[in-house]
Amino acid sequence: RTYNLAVIHGDGIGPEVNHQALKALDAASERFGFRLESTEYPLGAQNYLDTGKLIEVGTLERIRRHDAILFGAMGDPRVAPGILERGLILRIRREFRQQVNLRPVRLYPGVPTPIKDLSPDRCDFVVVRENTEGLYVSEGSTVHGGTKNAVALQESVNTARAIADVVDYSFRLAQKRRKKLTLCHKKNVLVHAGELWQTVVDEHSPQYPDVEVDYVHVDAMCQHMPMTPERFDVIVTDNLFGDIISDLGATIQGGLGVAASANLNLDGQAPSMFEPVHGSAPDIAGRGWANPAAAVLSAALCLAALGEGEAALSLERAAASVLAGLPALAGPGMCAHTDELGDLIAQRITQG
Ligand code: NAI
Ligand code: MG
Known about the structure:
By secondary structure, this protein is α/β, with parallel strands linked by helices. It has 2 domains: about 1-100 and about 265-350, Isopropylmalate Dehydrogenase, CATH 3.40.718; about 115-250, Isopropylmalate Dehydrogenase, CATH 3.40.718.10. Helix content is about 45%, strand content about 25%. It has helices at about 15-30, 45-50, 55-65, 85-95, 145-150, 160-175, 190-205, 220-225, 240-250, 295-305, 310-330, 340-350, and strands at about 1-10, 35-40, 70-75, 100-105, 125-130, 135-145, 150-155, 180-185, 210-215, 235, 260-265, 270-275. Helix 1 (about 15-30) crosses helix 11 and helix 1 runs parallel beside helix 12. It is globular. 1,4-dihydronicotinamide adenine dinucleotide binds next to helix 1. Its cofactor is Mn(2+); Mg(2+). This is 3-isopropylmalate dehydrogenase.
């Protein structure tokens, strides 16, 4: 088996952590006997500043032919906020119909969490966020009535078709895990969208009789997730609620250094994209302080999606074992450099 990866390093710590992910993937390919070919696409803030272009149609079409996209991070203080997000990241998600944003929330042993008394065995769930609709279609209008009387309308688009794809994916994921699916919404207030989500879940439920289904309002979710994360296995939700609760999830699991994500194409017509949740971190770029675990765990999600389950598990285990040793590595006089951590992770993958 040979997999063709499109690699987008991006800016700041993007290339620094992505290189560690590639090292881990190389180690896994040797150990598990598959081939990886990667092609780099120089996209991001620096490329935009140099060329004035975000991404050309020809580049998109070349990326489309890859099996998966490994994405670092992009952003630069010299580029206005929103330009890269809308012009590149959201564009890729939309063009490649990446309907699911997958955010595992797992507390690995040794990783400090701000939640008092939370032990790793109680925190292992996944947020499945609808990635293309809801309020994020950015449709609406502002009725200008002067500074005092303006009215802003922001539309939320929810199609049964997109919800069904995401809900079906979530049921199948739950079947492979602890067999519990929780719908998160605010259906008591957002009655139109909420009812459609609930209806789609109810319609799918009989096909998955082994999966237990429940429902939690998004505000209550913000209490339950940090206090009783063990009650969740797969949480399915819309674009906005998913954005918010998955950031809460990242905090619970110990922050941006360990939060991984996948943007999944479900129809097989375009590649999925795998990226750490963090951004380009200009404040620490170039210093070797970036934690590569989030990028390596994202690469693990990539292998799992490609069907290399064993290799995926070995990346996750290696990253987890290095994280478990980090408090010691980060002690006085022991500065753990991004590259060294990447080497250590690759080494553990090789050794098994
Ligand atoms: P950020 O995630 O880049 O950094 C937030 C804080 O977390 C910083 O103090 C940073 O040093 C720290 N941090 C982030 N990743 C880390 C890691 N792997 N190891 C250790 N510390 C880490 O978010 P920020 O500062 O709000 O944004 C910086 C730039 O990144 C902006 O241009 C923003 O637009 C962009 N951004 C891009 C994203 C993407 O490419 N998907 C996502 C979020 C932000
Ligand atoms: Mg976010």
